[in-house]
């Protein structure tokens, strides 16, 4: 797990490919109030070295108790909690909360349910969720195809993929297998949540600081409004409710 988590640390190129939209926030700009959002309820300790079965299922009771009030599918909440717990164990200096992951998951795909998609017991999201074509219009970056359509289904331009909306090049660098099926799949909520955790920690370093949290969210989506929206959802989840 540690090797998978840290494999992208040496990667310093292709930064432009990691961005999916325009940005209004820069270093030195005022950081929004309420950043970082509260961490929410503590996630119970889990065994992150489980070799068989779906590790996130260890958090079923924890997630099932909270999911109805949060309006988050139980499987998705398990995935967010597990990813945050792995981050805490493997990279304790990151201090990433499950509420931040849940906020991102809500904004990106309504927790894997966008346009009628559903989450299977193993975490697979079906039908797969794909973002807009990143052709440079409507404020998006122009990102020519990087995967020959193998992942996102578009052989001309890139599209964001899955419940956490990774673009293909970002997934190539950070994607990991979190549900022990042997495949790192952007359309699996477990894989996507843990990969997002690794990416956020790598980019933000310490997400318990305002600057670190904004750096991480800025890398995930180059938009100040995006960060504010994730903050608002994460803050609501920390209070035990949905917006």
TrEMBL record:
Keyword Membrane: no
Keyword Signal on entry: yes
Signal peptide residues on this chain, from the entry's feature table: 1-26
CDD domains cross-referenced by the UniProt entry: Slt35-like
GO molecular function, one term: peptidoglycan lytic transglycosylase activity
Residues of the Transglycosylase SLT domain: 160-201
GO biological processes: peptidoglycan catabolic process
Keywords from the UniProt entry: Signal
InterPro entries named among the record's database cross-references: Lysozyme-like_dom_sf (IPR023346), MltB-like (IPR043426), SLT_2 (IPR031304)
Record-linked Pfam families: SLT_2
PANTHER family, per database record: LYTIC MUREIN TRANSGLYCOSYLASE (PTHR30163:SF8), MEMBRANE-BOUND LYTIC MUREIN TRANSGLYCOSYLASE B (PTHR30163)
Protein name stated in the entry: Transglycosylase SLT domain-containing protein
Taxonomy of the source species: Bacteria, Bacillati, Actinomycetota, Actinomycetes, Mycobacteriales
């Amino acid at each position: 797990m540690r090797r998978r988590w840290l494999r992208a640390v040496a990667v310093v190129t292709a930064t432009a490919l990691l961005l999916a939209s325009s940005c209004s926030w820069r270093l030195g700009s005022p950081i929004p109030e309420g950043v970082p959002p509260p961490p929410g309820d503590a996630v119970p300790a889990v065994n992150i070295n489980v070799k068989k079965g779906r590790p996130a299922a260890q958090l079923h009771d924890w997630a099932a108790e909270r999911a109805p009030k949060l309006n988050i599918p139980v499987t998705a909440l398990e995935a967010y909690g597990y990813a945050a717990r792995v981050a805490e164990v493997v990279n304790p200096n990151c201090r990433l909360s499950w509420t931040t992951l849940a906020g991102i998951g809500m904004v990106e795909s309504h927790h894997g349910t966008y346009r009628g998609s559903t989450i299977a017991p193993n975490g697979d999201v079906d039908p797969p969720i794909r973002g807009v074509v990143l052709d440079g219009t409507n404020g998006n970056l122009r990102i020519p195809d990087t995967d020959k359509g193998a992942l996102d289904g578009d052989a001309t331009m890139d599209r964001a993929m899955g419940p956490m909306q990774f673009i293909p090049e970002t997934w190539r660098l950070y994607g990991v297998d979190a549900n022990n099926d042997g495949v790192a799949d952007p359309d699996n909520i477990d894989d996507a949540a843990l990969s997002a955790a690794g990416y956020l920690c790598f980019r933000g370093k310490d997400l318990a600081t305002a600057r670190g949290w904004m750096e991480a969210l800025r890398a995930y989506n180059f938009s100040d409004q995006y960060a504010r929206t994730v903050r608002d959802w994460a803050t609501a989840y920390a209070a035990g409710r949905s917006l």
